[in-house]
Amino acid sequence: MKTLSADGKVMTEEATRKHLQRCSDHWDQHGFGLWVFRDRADGQSIGRGGLMTYQIDGESVVGLAYAVLSGHWNQGFATEMAEASLRFGFEQLGLGEIGSWTLPINGASQRVMAKLGFRYEKDIEFAALPHRFYRLVKDEWEAYHEPTSS
Fold first, then answer.
1. pTM of the model
2. Which residue would you say has higher pLDDT here, 8 or 81?
């Protein structure tokens, strides 16, 4: 949780329930949201990722989210989850752009975003904390990725 919460601690049970309800409501309202990702080899949960709609500086932004359990860091899972989410957003949902943001201290997440083609845009405040905001537009994504056959 060091990169996902203001105090670096695990969310309370109540906060977890509220978050899960928000995620469920998002699926109902938008038809997309977060997924649980599992290791292909053993089926264990490795994290969660996907796309969610957020308000950033008064603008509605579809944001890329990904979080990998610490026991699975540095194995490429964040990049794989993010790529699958971006492909879904651009190819299936027809989004024109996707945002992503992270705490300034989260160098690993910033490297994932750079690897995927995101460009730093500005510093923002999100969840009462300073974040770095990045954006990826569909045209730039398509320049580096072959579309999958539908």
1. 0.84
2. 81
109 C-beta neighbours (distance < 10 Å), count: 21
* Pairwise pLDDT comparison (6 vs 146), residue with the higher score: 146
In the block, tokens 């957020």 appear at 54
Return phi, psi of residue 6, to 5°: -65, -30
Q: Which superfamily is assigned to 13-144 in CATH?
A: Gcn5-related N-acetyltransferase (GNAT) (3.40.630.30)
DSSP string, 3-54: TTSSSSSPPPHHHHHHHHHHHHHHHHHHS--EEEEE-TTT--EEEEEEEEEE
User: Angle 77-87/107-116 helices, nearest 10 degrees?
Assistant: 40
